[in-house]
Amino acid sequence: MPLHAPAATTAASARELIAAQGGRVTRTRVAVIEALQRSAHPLSHDELGAVLDGADIAHDRVTLYRALDWLVEQGIAQRIAGGERAWRFEIRRGDDHRHAHFHCERCGQIVCLEDVPTASAPHLPAGFELERAELVLHGACADCGRAAAKGSAR
Ligand SMILES: [Zn+2]
Ligand SMILES: [Zn+2]
Question: Do the beta carbons of residue 105 and residue 70 sit within 8 Å?
Answer without folding.
Answer: no
